[in-house]
Design goal:
116 residues, mainly beta, four-stranded antiparallel beta sheet, 10 strands
Length: 116
């Protein structure tokens, strides 16, 4: 399983970013996919899930601000981040499978920093 995130960066509060996750080594269109993040203190937080049937679910931190989507033709998962706040600063990672926090099916992450 290969998962590679991109799209992170530094933004000001209120800004937006679009994260991407390219997957390989598994049947992408059949997989449940997730976004999570690891805060500077090391805590893991689930953000969003998109099932193979495109049903979406969001954690409390993501509701109303983040949008998960997928493009099966490109084997790519996306997370649109809007209205970012300082507390959103973290390493964002994508994962595949039944568990969002399985380290065996998780990318290395992309850093998002929100500061003024």
């Amino acid at each position: 399983v290969r998962l590679e995130e991109s799209g992170g960066g530094s933004v000001q509060p209120g800004g937006s970013l679009r994260l991407s996750c390219r997957g390989g080594g598994f049947v992408f269109h059949n997989a449940d996919l997730h976004w999570g993040r690891q805060t500077p203190s090391g805590d893991l937080e689930w953000l969003a899930t998109i099932l193979a049937d495109r049903t979406t679910r969001y954690g409390d931190s993501a509701k109303g601000r983040f949008t998960i989507s997928r493009d099966n033709r490109r084997n790519t998962l996306y997370l649109q981040l809007n209205d970012l706040v300082v507390d959103d600063s973290a390493t964002y990672f994508c994962s595949a499978g039944t568990r969002w926090d399985n380290p065996s099916f998780r990318g290395q992450g992309t850093q998002v920093t929100v500061s003024s």
